[in-house]
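Before relying on records like the one below, remember that each one covers exactly one chain. Contacts with other chains, cofactors or solvent are not represented anywhere in the record.
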Amino acid sequence: MATTRRDFIKTAGLAAGAALAAPAGIAAAPRRAPGMAALDGKTSIPFKLGLASYSFRAFGLDEAVAMTRRLGLEAIALKSVHLALESPPDAVKAAAAKVRDAGLDLYGCGVVYMKSGDEIRQAVEYARAAGLSLIIGVPDIELLPFAETAVRDSGVRLALHNHGPTDKIYPTPESAYLKIRDLDPRIGLCLDAGHAARSGLDPAAEAEKYFDRLLDVHIKDVTSADVEGGPVEIGRGVIDIPKLLRTLVRLGYGGKVSLEYEKDEKDPLPGAAESVGYLRGVLDTL
């Protein structure tokens, strides 16, 4: 029997309230940490919940880290607004150390737009200085051979991000997949669930179809499954979030599922907390 949204919201509300009640800078303990073995007979969750720091783009790095911890999330991928791509290597290393010292798994950066070989080199050098395993990016299509060489030389993976029906480079996961399926497997996809839905696609089906190249997931919800769909708290929109999470668990996806909360730029924490609570509520039913 399918669990209803009301059941999820009851659990989500408890988790969201706990997250907001925690003192700033102190992580609210997850009910059951994703990625840990199941000790209570429930399904083991193979992935970590994280944050795409674009969610907190109106705030500085220290505030973004504190809010991420307050949500009880385990991992983060930094947008350049929080650590500029052109920063000197020593500054990148120091900022990365600060994030990790706060208890977060700093695993990636992005979304990074790359329109030249120099910009690809810059992104790779930045990732290496920060000790990142993944660049979430949008390289121009003609630069993919150059990107493949950079990935092979550095060992840093590259996940192409779909940006929806108005994007001219990689609007859908398929549009990216067709360009990279014969390239080094360390070039893959970052599935953006919201933009997939805005393209009229089922994010769960997209995850399964292109699972062999799925390196990262940006999870969010939207108001409608078309070009007009806008950001909304997870669980209030049209995406079947439980189906997506069930699919990722069934497939054994071991990457990150990172919240990208684009609503309420100046006051994102309440909606982000509600969204994280909903995700945890779903995961606790699996």
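The longest strand covers residues 105-114.
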